[in-house]
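Before we proceed, please read the two lines closing this message. Report back on whether the structure tokens fit the sequence:
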Amino acid sequence: MHQSKFLIFIISCFLFSCTKEHTYPFPEERNAINIWLGSGTVVEDSFTHNFAYTITGRDSVMFNYRLSGFPLKHDTQFELQAVSGDTNRVYYTFGKYTIKARQYEGRFPIYIDKPAGYTEFTNSTGKIVFKLKESTDFLEGAEELSDLTVIFKNAVSKPDNWDVATSPYFTMSKYFGTYSNVKYAFIIQTTGMANFKIYYTVAKDPVLADNTITATQAAYFQNLCKAALLAYKNKYGPLMDENNSEVVFP
């Protein structure tokens, strides 16, 4: 008799626990995604994309992401959206943003296309703000890491590191001399690169940040520009800049 009552008590407790678990489930948490522009952990308020530095075709703006919350058990995608700005003046495309299982941070591109004859932002500055498109999987991250502001220009301008650079970086003037808009446009057209940094290293195969070259590569670019300028001069005469001075390289 006592044994039967004990079994009934155990079964009742089991049924009660099952009912309780079914009635009051724990809510499933959603992860958040922090997004920002910059290199590594450095957060930049905005990034300037200058169409004047781009050969006709496709370029990209890279952004960083970091997952905040529980590790993912399977591959999961997230999306961006443009929330304000000159969206009708820029040909932009989002990539396929997939966070792999057990992965929590990385970098992805926003693609920017420049059609032939593109003249937007030659006399003005544009802007688009991109944000995470919230979903059943992901919420926006911290307020200061929730949007990507991209500034758009379409004119040549002097890089910040032309005359000033902090070690172990070199100035661009060390290899290319006095700045002018015409000279800089010539460098871009000759090398296919713009707004790059010059890093001193003795490593054989250094790992460099985006748009960074070694001093050896800078010397190569210097000679490349000298040869291209000589070919130009032989064909058209001296290349004159906006100050009516002849363009020369050291």
Summary: Confidence is low (pLDDT under 50) at residues 1-27. Helices lie at 2-23, 173-176, 181-191, 215-236.
